[in-house]
């Protein structure tokens, strides 16, 4: 199945407020990622701009709404919209989230946590395979931040993620911030998680900022990457080598220059992991 | 052990139960579990509120955030999202506002919502592919006796909205970049509006009663003959030749076919 690698550099998640500036100024960034759903439209200026961006940059499509873990039937309309966008933009890479977003016909439009059980694993594997078969390409699946864990869970998250890649052949989008957030929220060692990741499956890394509250860390994508997450990223680079890395920022979106500076920091760590090590 | 489906159903039920509902399935003690469930609840409702605020900015500006957010929360309960694509959520919000009385001084709120939804749809509609020249050519080769039964199609982005209130002026007066204070009299007349996407962006244009009825009939799939009848019922002075030429030239009419 089709799957081409992203450039081995640090890109940014392109959000609507920055599209005009990127088109006008053409900043030096090795690749860009957009949220697929923002372009599930029939026409109009947003799609036309994406065509222009695609002409200038390698593009990754990152979906937030496929609901891979839901027990409702796979939304074939949603899948068809993704297929149409893939057809139009010929992205370098396509990814979705390891979560569910609705049940009983009601969609919650958020990344909700799965109970890590054998039943869930079999279910998600079947759904990932169905999506890969329908798209005729390998997708990457991203680990998500969670605030609740299930008492009935029987498998550690990292084993669940590794098994998903092993059984379906999907790639992994390893979100370092989400691993850190979950390590704090659920009390495990983030190093154990990283060490359990199958190197050959890791196709992309995400970095973003979280918000610390009294009860837990919340994955807001609204702040700079935290020092502790940079430290974990250095560890990931030491383990995995160079992996295409992306800076995400979705709330309180700062000037484009701020995102580019964060990407430059990631690039420096990737290029000289020892020299930058804390 | 509960099934995956049972756990997902319990999660959703706890989330929508609101307040301090305690998830029964969590690993952490009840008090902490309730607080963490509230993190999800806030995120889910913030997503709905943000999505509808992006589609209905003037409705939000006119009603204020507290009313708007409460209206969205109530709307979500009656009209749940059914797609992972949140950009298409909220088409029924105008009708919902009409059936849930807004503040007495905003009787036009549902119509204004219809105008904002029409703009949203126009902004993401398919790009038209035909040119005025193509449409004229098709029309020219048609025999005169074929014309009454012909079907004229509007460009994919065309939407029609009418109101007994002057909603266009109200909409214009409430743009975020409009700092001038203007009083719009609700008796200032009704509006019949054609909304569509042109190369420079989404436009809103006032049209007369006859032309509105004509465009609405064409949009509903009626034949040209039936549409002319509807137009003349609305306005006896409706001039087909002028309207047809203008709407082909400006691209609102994007296709013609004989039946």
Can you offer a commentary on this structure?
The complex is a heterodimer of chains A (278) and B (259). Chain A has one domain (10-276): TIM Barrel. Helix content of chain A is 42%, strand content 18%. Chain A is built from ten helices and twelve strands. In chain A, the strands form three sheets. An eight-stranded parallel barrel of chain A has the order 1-2-3-4-7-8-9-12. Chain A is globular, with a radius of gyration of 18 Å. Chain A starts with 9 loop residues before the first strand and ends with a helix. By secondary structure, chain B is mainly α. Chain B folds into two domains: 1-106, no CATH class; 126-259, Alpha-Beta Complex (Outer Surface Protein A, domain 3), CATH 3.90.930. Chain B is 51% helix and 11% strand. In chain B, the strands form two sheets. Chain B has a three-stranded antiparallel sheet, sandwiched between helices. Chain B has a two-stranded antiparallel ribbon with strand order 1-5. In chain B, strand 3 and strand 4 (201-206) form a beta hairpin. In chain B, helix 3 (57-63) crosses helix 4. The termini of chain B are far apart. In chain B, 40% of the residues are buried. The mean pLDDT of chain B is 93. At the A-B interface, helix 2, helix 3, strand 5, strand 6 and helix 4 of A face helix 1 and helix 2 of B.
Largest sheet of chain B: 3 strands, antiparallel
Q: How many DSSP E strands of chain B?
A: 5
Distance between the termini of chain B: 62 Å
- Shape by Cα distribution of chain B: elongated
Give the strand line-up of the largest sheet of chain A.
1-2-3-4-7-8-9-12
Give the ordered list of helices and strands of chain A.
EHEHEHEEEHEHEHHEEEHEHH
Architecture (CATH level 2) name of chain A: Alpha-Beta Barrel
Structural descriptors:
heterodimer; A: 278 residues; alpha/beta; TIM Barrel; eight-stranded parallel barrel; two-stranded antiparallel ribbon; 10 helices; 12 strands; 18% strand; B: 259 residues; mainly alpha; Outer Surface Protein A, domain 3; 2 domains; three-stranded antiparallel sheet; 11 helices; elongated
